[in-house]
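call fold(seq) -> tokens
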Amino acid sequence: MEQEIRYLDFDGRRLAYSTYGEGPPLLVGPRWVSHLEEEWADADQRPFYLELARTHQVVRFDRLGCGLSDRVLEPRPTIDSESRQLEAVIDAVGGRAAIFASSCCCLAASQLAVRNPLKVERIVFFGAYASRNDIPEAMRVSLVQFTRINWGLAAQMFASLFDPHAGGDELQKYTRMQRKAATAEAASIFLDLDLNADLRDVAAHVAVPAIVLHRRGDRTVPIARGRELASLLPNARFVPLGGDAHVPWKDDQRELFRALAGFLHDSPPPEVDAGSPLTSRETEVLRLVATGMSNREIASTLVLSEHTVHRHVANILRKLAQSTRVGAVTRATRFGFI
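ret:
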């Protein structure tokens, strides 16, 4: 089965988006530059989207100015216009979606969640940031100019930052993909926007549930930027991940998908039994137990100590009169407690 590519009209320009799979929509927001066909054909990226599609309809799009969307960048993009593009795609697939906001997509996703929260079910922030004020202004200007003047070398430099362990062939492949996705002018305009936007005042008003996933060794966006973002969001969990790749489809995927499972599937069904003996926190813990998470993984997801999770599990087993985690999940499911 192949992805379906469609187009919608956005302020008189053609915006390309794709869908794959069935289930509730999960909008995987575009990174700096993107190309729907090239990314789908990439042997590294496609398995990542297929895994997401096991439980969701995966929706992707190319921001105006790159990929299969119209390459016209007048008027120049703003975070507000980028958030309206997100909204337009969400409207095209049902009117409400969870968002996987990788890297710079966090800016538009947060803006949309504040401006129109009914469109956003929840947000996964991956390798994201509230601002790049950790980069001196002179360096930001230099990076934008370098990208505009020497796009070939700049694309190669960014490819090596996104995946520090990539070999020569992999770097060449990703470099070609970026250059096919956007012109030097477009790449530099997007970079200028993404490096200079400041989300800090907006983040405090993002009320939708959020999780901030960040690899400890990320060289493109240091993990301190992710911690800052999580501290500003009023309804977020912070989960550090192993590895150093800035792109989500590299490094160990198991840890990433366990965190996603615990977050994307933890909404209680509307008819949960009000007579449950479990507290709300115990119910939350048991839902994560049901996904196969260990106590350590649950502790990381909920930002608790492992000892606290162990105590919650012990209380769950006692209250449900079960001796095993599987038994507790089975009984709770049978009686509508989770």
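The radius of gyration is 21 Å.
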